[in-house]
Amino acid sequence: MGALALACFLAPEMRAQSNNAGYPITPVPFTAVKVTPNTFWGQRLEASRNVTIPLAFSKCESERRYTNFSQAAEHLKDPSKVFKVDGVMGYSFDDTDPYKTLEGASYLLQTYPDKKLDAYCDSVIAVIASAQEPDGYLYTARTQNPEHPHGWAGPTRWSKVEDLSHEFYNLGHLCEAAVAHYNATGKTSLLNIAKKFADCVCREVGDKPGQACVVPGHQIAEMGLAKLYIATGDRKYLDQAKFFLDKRGYTTIKTEYSQSHKPVLEQDEAVGHAVRAGYMYAGMADVAALTGDKGYIDAIDRIWDNIIQKKYYITGGVGATSNGEAFGKNYELPNMSAYCETCAAIAQVYLNYRLFLLHGDSKYYDALERTLYNGVISGISIDGGRFFYPNPLQSMGQHQRQAWFGCACCPSNVARFIPSLPQYIYAVKDNTFYVNLFAGNETTVKVGGKTVQMEQKTNYPWDGDVEMTMKKAGSKFALAVRIPGWVRGQVVPSDLYTYVDGKHLNYAVKVNGESVAAELKDGYFIIDRKWRTGDKVSVHFDMQPRVVRANGKVAADRGRVEIERGPLVYCAEWADNTCDVLSVLLNQEPKFEMGEKEIAETAVRTITTSAQTLSFDEQGRLTTKDEQLVLIPYYAWAHRGNGNMSVWLPIDLNATNPALPPSIASESKVWASSRRLPALSAVNDRLVPADGNDRSVPYTHWWPKNNSTEWIAYTFKEPATVSSSTVYWFDDAPWGGCRVPLSWKLYYQTEAGEWAEVSNPTAYGTDKGVANIVNFDPVRTSAMKLELVQPEKYSCGVFEWSVK
Description:
Largest sheet: 11 strands, antiparallel
Strand content: 15-25%
């Protein structure tokens, strides 16, 4: 019996490990690893179990996700029943929220068996099954009302799948959830639904006569179909995944946004929407491994090199700009406007995991670990109940985690990812047992055909001591322990970031109390011996605060440094400091002291260092003040209210931002026509854009409102005489929804409390991103109002509004 056929009959807990189906290195599945409670990751899994997954399921109920399926089922039973979809159903990919939450719940069922959760999952699966059309098509955005589907769906199946319909995206997430549920429970209920939908796609999509020759607009079907192939052994699923990649760049839509600008095998730079890209790159790795196609291996290696060398944030995030939620140009890594979508970070974990399984080099896990501890878990609060969509590296308080989003891809994605953490800890190749991540757990694996049971104890990432005990062993094999890049003096596997403090960290490995030595192989310390039950391996990594500089080509980080310790990136946040953390200057030779505090009822290690704050006094003279600057782990920021935060801190004078003296606008109360105007404080923060395309400074906007009259007003701290006003308009054409106003006016408040237009104003300018100055007759007042008229189909936005 072949390996693929055998996989169909293996017990769920052994299936993924026994069938690598092409990857040289075999994953150790989540079903074989039990994370220890009350550890760093144990706490995260508990939060997922107690908060995140229940919240995600409740949102599927309250936000009509289940309703979409039940209404589709009603139409299938009685075609005369149709339901309004466009304008009622949020997005054409809303079906994926239940899929992703089911996937996360499936991982948890293995870690924490729960009959009630298991039964609830069964009930959700039944609702999903009821909406599947007889030929397998499953897409509630159309089935609820085939004649008038969701506006993104297109008039017929697959007609807008390269653009907005997300039919293949839905399929991909369904496959991922189905395989996870099957592996965790052994049940085929969700797997059968996924197979039926995949069969429909395989029949109707391809390059044969009568088929639709289209590819996914939003990738992930490639990954999902590869998983479905491994779980079932049915080759047509792998062939379909490869078809989607082979035909990319040859079909109707060719754009960098969806990585269809050129054939996949010709691509060598990460471009476009960072989530779509990450999923496609991971799918390329799957197809490369499962088919042995060297062209795909070479292509994904080139793209990975581009990311890690030129487009990778120090937090492990990717995606420089909100304009298309996309990668920027090489070395374009702004901080305050960094997009770094949580989903994009998760996609980077998937990519680096697969490249490790292909190549066996620890550099992929070095990148994975950095992303995991910083770019991913910053996207979810410590208690598991609030979420970031973008994850900026600097903030003035305009960024806060939310309980949910209308476009819920990030909350539901992190809901499925965190419970899957156990599967990333270990791997096996022949007689080699890889230890890739350090977390308290127990695992039972097959190494060289022999059962090995091992326990890992550690307080990582807070200290660098790891103890591994063989609970059951009696064979000869090589234990390969990853020595992280941060221990070996390498920030990331490129010259994008460099340690500049001159420190040299050491590590030590002992077996049963005796020191052992070995040459590192691809970043792994190899201990090859006959193991016995009770053997102990003790690993120590020096763990000290380190100072990092970015490559000089990264303009946003010039003159600045980042402080990190172990795998954790640190930041300065307002809640821990009496000074303005955006106006500090670190000492040229910074010294550090470790401390501890609680954030969100969880202990974290802090770093304190000496610094100075720079500010201008009322006469415009530069002054300095000595400060003790407290730093916290980046993932723990934004748990204590709104305020300033920064990862990259000035150490050179040319990078400083001295605090400006108060102005009429900065001391005013700001209010607006909409109570929920985002980042309203941006309009009087005294930060102005370099030009109309600058996204490094905050702005506010009225999106998605349009074709309306809106306003912003200042109530002054005290009455003042004013005669001039300056506005910087935000306009994100051509992709975004904001444009400069059709017209605008200035008003002042009279002594009677009425609004009156200023007299004899100069031209009201509408140039984007530059100073539009209006002078008018002097008037003494306590308040000013800026009133604007929005375009018919667009909203307006403001970077800065000042009055003099």
